[in-house]
Design a protein that fits this description.
- The structure is a single chain.
- This protein is an alpha+beta fold.
- It is 45% helix and 25% strand.
- The chain has 35 helices and 36 strands.
- Helix 22 crosses helix 23.
Length: 989
């Protein structure tokens, strides 16, 4: 074996000089392993010698390994015998014998012949056939002479021969290409392919077939099935070969086979086709086997599934039926349907449920069809059906669409729940009666099992535990509710009752929201068949008694900051004064004093300075009253003065109180020196006299408190007397507050929507306005209950409800093309906006409802800007970054500073209706409206006017540059459905 190198290369004389070059070799040659043993691994393999030499001649490689005789011959054929040199001898090959496998006689004769060749003769043979490079020059000359002679004597014969050779070469190349393509095809398909001769001897197989016998094609060809499988299996294969040969056409069968290489057992579909030559003579059998294991498994699973369905369909206790969607007619029904309705299968096939009158209320069927259109199915919907005999039943139905024999059908499964509904209704009523009894019981009631877990509690008990409903406590233990020390004590009491079987009566505390409430508790064992199964408990609130006892023990009757009597002592003093007044006929007066703007002082100068102010106010008050009068501090900046022994004559007594009140006022408005800070403070004073001897402490305090608020309403820094009209207002306000709290719980509030339109009259959105539908008083104006909500703090849950409802409405509109682009403006009160977690509340509501933040506009009032503007800007920026927009409502009526206004991240200014109302008749209002529009334009804000009622007002605003409006000119605030219809009409027009 010799290494050849291109004549342009020098220096390749041995293996060491060969490293770094790509060496061309024929795939499978022995020289590959020899070169790798020498450390030469950069090898490029070719399928045959012809391809190897062709690549070298083409310049793809410059070094190759090949025996000299074929190398010389192939280089000569490519006219490249001078382009490559013999570099060095890699190794010398030995003589090889080629005889038929197993032919020992011939092999012996060949070996005998080889042994008779001497060493000299072997060398001579080697030099002749494998020696030096073929010198083609003299042979070329002789060949040229011969060709010239042949040309002279037989031109036609030469031409014919050349044409014949070209034809043979072309046909040979074509056959080689087709054979290569066929080989690639057979090797790449996933099926097993093989060819046998008529005697069953393998002539060919592909790689997939090699896996079956665990052998290479070269090991399989020339052998029969009997060499690889047992006789029974081989007979089976051979028998099917003969059947195909005898039939003269392809024959197929299914059989299980096991692959020898990995032990896989698969089901194959085998097709055997007899092969004939051009004369029609049988030459063998072509076999193709395809793995159909998965297909077979899938078909089996389908058959089993269908059988299970048939069994389940026929034997189901529930009613099961199939109806065509096209005409509603029954396709099939089971025995459960007959038991439930009385209709036999043969009576309903081809008829619809409407034709049979099965639906009691056709509206139920419409609801079911609508649900199917929306979701494609319905689950556990409850309907009323009519049996064949006319009686009615209640069924729980689930419906799904399925194909049946090419038709779209509905599979309905219905369970008769008539008796279940009746029992549930009876149980529900019974539970309602029991619950009403427990919840209206004046004590706390509970029932526990032997493990001290709650089985039932009444509403007062749940409220005492701070739970929203009794159901929240069922299944829980004391450790889930109370601190550990209390829970351990309660369960110890339970265990004592369970073990003794006797009731106990104890006084024990319950922790509720950090506050301990004392109860007198009675616990008793619950017996069933003389077995204790749990405990029942009753408790009544004795907190006030305990608290009084505790306070008496501590003698805690004075305020620690001012050393004035606190509320408790105040109650005692006032009750004594009322009793004394009843005996003496003298009048008693109560003054309620609140310091104006105390919170601002506290926030600006600090709580320490605020405490100094309270202490100085306390001393000044004590200097203003007589001995025997009482000055008390309720808490914060609120003080109460009780004046006794006033004139029994009403007007004279009132005059005495007024003199003392004015004295107190004059004393409290004097400047204060608070640790170096000179400041002023003013009081608002409310006064009430004891006109009814039966009046309670609470009533007197409420009257004084209301009078104080009247003083604040009059501009602060003054005093006011309580009068009967105020009393009536107090009573009405108290009742309204209670009704509003209940209205929030009962869902009596609703939203109306007032459209907002642009210059073209297109509806761009709406402002949501809350309405209260009182069960007795009907629709209550927001002017009446919104201020009350602000004062009582109910504005917080009310505002949260409005925001949540508005966001949910935006989500509902998002799927309606006519409504999807509308924005909703929601009013936010100053108290609501100042909540520390207001931003989180809004973002959580948006996230929970999935509403689009860009469709939400929050309307703020100018009064919000009076306090802590920096915090307001931070909150607005946080929400605006999420897409929420802002409008400044009632602009021009408040006290907002322009310096603050330009810093606020606003989107819109809203002209208040008080300016719009007289914009045509009052030059001042007209000027203000134009100024607001100009200001909005200079700040890059949009502007909208509210309260537009006439076309003339709208035209004036449009000329002034304000094109967005809302008001009764376009529409009053509308309920939801009427607003939707309004938008639809506007869109249509």
């Amino acid at each position: 074996m010799t290494i050849f190198s291109h004549s342009g290369l020098g220096g390749i004389t041995g293996p060491d000089t060969l490293r770094g070059f790509a060496v061309g070799v024929k795939a499978g040659d022995a020289c590959i392993s020899k070169l790798r043993d020498l450390g030469i691994t950069h090898l490029q393999e070719f399928g045959n010698y012809e391809a190897l030499v062709a690549a070298a001649v083409a310049g793809q490689i410059r070094v190759f390994c090949l025996d000299e005789p074929p190398a010389n011959y192939l280089l000569y054929r490519h006219h490249a015998e001078h382009d490559f040199n013999k570099a060095f001898q890699l190794y010398t090959g030995k003589f090889h014998r080629a005889v038929h496998k197993g032919d020992a006689t011939t092999l012996a004769l060949v070996n005998q012949g080889f042994s008779a060749i001497s060493d000299d003769e072997q060398q001579a043979l080697h030099d002749k056939w494998m020696g030096s490079k073929l010198n083609v020059l003299p042979y070329g000359r002789y060949l040229a002479y011969a060709l010239m002679i042949a040309a002279l004597t037989g031109v036609l014969l030469a031409v014919w021969g050349a044409a014949l050779r070209r034809e043979v070469n072309q046909r040979t190349a074509q056959l080689e290409n087709e054979r290569a393509r066929l080989r690639v095809l057979l090797e790449t398909i996933p099926d097993l392919v093989w060819l046998k001769d008529e005697a069953g001897v393998y002539l060919f197989c592909n790689q997939q077939f090699e896996h079956l016998y665990g052998a290479r094609e070269a090991q399989i060809v020339g052998k029969t099935d009997y060499h690889f499988v047992d006789r029974e299996q081989a007979d089976f294969f051979r028998d099917h070969d003969r059947k195909a040969q005898a039939a003269g056409k392809p024959m197929s069968n299914e059989e299980w086979i096991t692959f020898a290489d990995d032990g896989r057992r698969v089901l194959v579909e085998t097709t055997k086709t007899p092969m004939h030559d051009a004369t029609g003579k049988l030459i063998g059998v072509l076999g193709i086997a395809r793995d159909i294991t998965r297909r077979n498994q899938a078909e089996q699973a389908v058959r089993e599934s269908e059988e299970r369905y048939r069994v389940a369909f026929r034997t189901s206790c529930d009613s099961v039926n199939i109806n065509r969607i096209a005409d509603g007619c029954f396709v099939d029904s089971n025995e459960g349907f007959e038991r439930m309705t009385g209709w036999r299968r043969e009576e309903v096939i081809g008829r619809s449920s409407l034709e049979l009158g099965i639906w009691v209320d056709p509206e139920d069927r419409r609801r079911m069809v609508e649900k199917l259109r929306q979701d494609g199915f319905c689950e556990n919907m409850q309907f009323r059906f009519r049996r064949k005999d006319g009686s009615e039943l209640i069924g729980q139905m689930s419906v799904h669409a399925i194909p049946v024999d090419g038709d779209e059908c509905l599979l309905s499964v219905t369970r008769d729940i008539t008796e279940q509904v009746r029992i549930e209704e009876a149980l529900r009523q019974r539970e309602q009666y029991q619950r009403a009894l427990l919840d209206n019981f004046p004590f706390l009631v509970w029932l526990k099992d032997n493990s001290s877990r709650f089985l039932a509690v009444n509403k007062p008990f749940a409220e005492a535990c701070g739970q929203p409903s009794p159901n929240h406590l069922v299944g829980k233990s004391d450790f889930d509710i109370w601190p550990r020390d209390l829970a351990e004590a309660y369960q110890a009491d339970d265990q004592a009752v369970l073990e003794s079987g006797r009731p106990t009566n104890v006084e024990e505390p319950i922790e509720v929201g950090g506050k301990r409430i004392w109860f007198e508790t009675y616990k008793s064992p619950v017996l069933i068949d003389e077995h204790v199964i749990g405990t029942v408990g009753f408790a009544r609130d004795i907190t006030e008694r305990k608290a009084t006892e505790e306070e008496v023990r501590r003698l805690a009757f004075y305020d620690t900051l001012t050393h004035l009597p606190n509320r408790r002592l105040l109650v005692d003093r006032l009750q004594q004064a009322i009793a004394s007044s009843a005996r003496s006929g003298k009048q008693v007066a109560v003054l309620f004093i609140d310091l104006d703007n105390f919170k601002i002082l506290n926030d600006t100068l600090g709580h320490g300075i605020g405490d100094l102010l309270l202490q100085q106010v306390a001393k000044r008050l004590e200097h203003c009253v007589r001995e025997g009068d009482t000055v008390a501090r309720l808490g914060g900046d609120e003080f109460v003065v009780i004046l006794e022994d006033l004139s029994g004559e009403v007007f004279e007594g009132a005059r005495q109180v007024e003199i003392i009140g004015e004295k107190i006022h004059a004393e409290l408005v004097r400047p204060y020196d608070l640790d170096g800070h000179q400041t002023n403070s003013t009081p608002s004073i409310g006064i009430t006299l004891l006109t009814d001897r039966e009046t309670t402490f609470e009533e007197l305090m409420k009257r004084a408190d209301m009078a104080m608020y009247q003083a604040k309403g009059a501009g602060r820094n003054t005093l006011r007397f309580f009068d009967p009209e105020m009393q009536a207002a107090v009573a009405a306000r108290t009742a309204l507050e209670g009704d509003l709290r209940e209205g929030l719980k009962q869902g009596q509030l609703l939203l109306h929507y007032q459209p907002q339109v642009d210059g073209s009259g297109t509806v761009t959105g709406a402002e949501v306005l809350v309405r209260w539908r009182h069960p007795l008083r009907g629709l209550i104006s927001p002017i009446e209950f919104i201020p009350l909500a602000e004062e009582t703090g109910l504005i917080l849950p009310l505002g949260a409800w409005v925001l949540t409802t508005a966001c949910n409405q935006l989500v509902s509109w998002s799927s309606d093309p006519a409504m999807a682009n509308l924005t909703l403006a929601v009013n936010v009160s100053a108290r609501q906006f100042r909540q520390p977690d207001f931003v989180g509340q809004v973002l959580t509501t948006l996230e929970t409802s999935s509403a689009n933040p860009t469709k939400l506009k929050l309307e703020l009032t100018e009064s919000l800007l009076l306090d802590n503007v920096e915090e307001i800007i931070l909150k607005m920026n946080a929400l605006r970054s999420s897409g929420v927009s802002f409008a400044l409502d009632d602009f021009g009526t408040g006290y907002s500073s322009l310096s603050y206004l330009k810093r606020l991240p606003l989107n819109q200014l809203k002209i208040d209706q008080t300016f719009v109302r007289d914009v045509l008749s009052d030059p001042n209002d007209a000027a203000i409206a134009r100024t607001i529009v100009a200001l909005a334009q200079s700040l890059g804000l949009s502007v909208i006017a509210e309260g537009v009622e006439t076309e003339e007002q709208r035209e004036f605003l449009a000329v002034s540059g304000c094109h967005a409006c809302q008001g009764y000119l376009f529409s009053a605030p509308l309920p939801l459905e009427e607003f939707r219809q309004f938008v639809s009409r506007k869109s249509a027009s």
